[in-house]
Design brief:
Strand content: 15-25%
Order of helices and strands: EHHEHHHEHHHEHH
CATH class: Alpha Beta
Distance between the termini: 32 Å
Structural class: alpha+beta
CATH superfamily: Nucleoside diphosphate kinase-like domain
Number of helices: 10
Mean pLDDT: 92
Largest sheet: 4 strands, antiparallel
Number of domains: 1
């Protein structure tokens, strides 16, 4: 069974505005994940509604107020959409990113290292939740999100010189 997966990562406006997108992307590359698609975009409300409600059911799970604040946040500046590929990439990326609530994110995760505001604080203050990044939660969500964010032909397949080393290789029999 092939465990190579593709997943969507979106670097949110707070990551773009803080100028830390290169540092975040380099973490994924250092972990051996391959970038198969990358673009800066400024999606409209309709696009984000598909992403956050039709796929992610944000209104259903968290309510209209959270959705409205999220939508305002996500349309504040362009975002960086990335397709990452690797062995069990969806689960691995989620671990690297950390929980959605930065307060719960451990040091060493992207949110744990670059954010600190809690969801409780954000909701009580009527503020945005600066948590830098979105990552697909599971295979079904990744498929739907990749279809929404990337047109056919804008996700690339290529080999890297270190791909076999990063993903593991079949040992060769040694002559004795």
């Amino acid at each position: 069974m092939d465990h190579v997966e593709q997943t969507l990562v979106v670097l949110k406006p707070d990551a773009v505005q803080r100028g830390i997108i290169g540092e975040i992307i380099s973490r994924f590359e250092r972990a051996g994940l391959k970038i198969s698609g990358l673009k800066m975009v400024a999606p409209d409300d309709k696009h984000f509604h598909k992403h956050y409600e039709e796929i992610g059911t944000l209104i259903s799970r968290r309510g209209q107020q959270i959705y409205d604040v999220t939508l305002a946040t996500m349309t504040d500046s362009p975002v960086i959409a990335i397709v990452l590929e690797g062995i069990d990439a969806i689960e691995h990326v989620r671990k690297m990113v950390g929980p959605t609530d930065p307060k719960e994110s451990l040091p060493g995760t992207i949110r744990g290292d670059f954010t600190h505001v809690s969801r409780t604080h954000a909701v009580e203050a009527g503020r945005t939740l600066p948590n830098l990044i979105h990552a697909s939660a599971n295979k079904e969500e990744a498929k739907q999100e990749l279809d929404l964010w990337f047109d056919e032909g804008s996700i690339y397949s290529y080999r890297t010189p270190h791909q076999e080393i990063v993903r593991g290789r079949v040992p060769q029999k040694r002559e004795q």
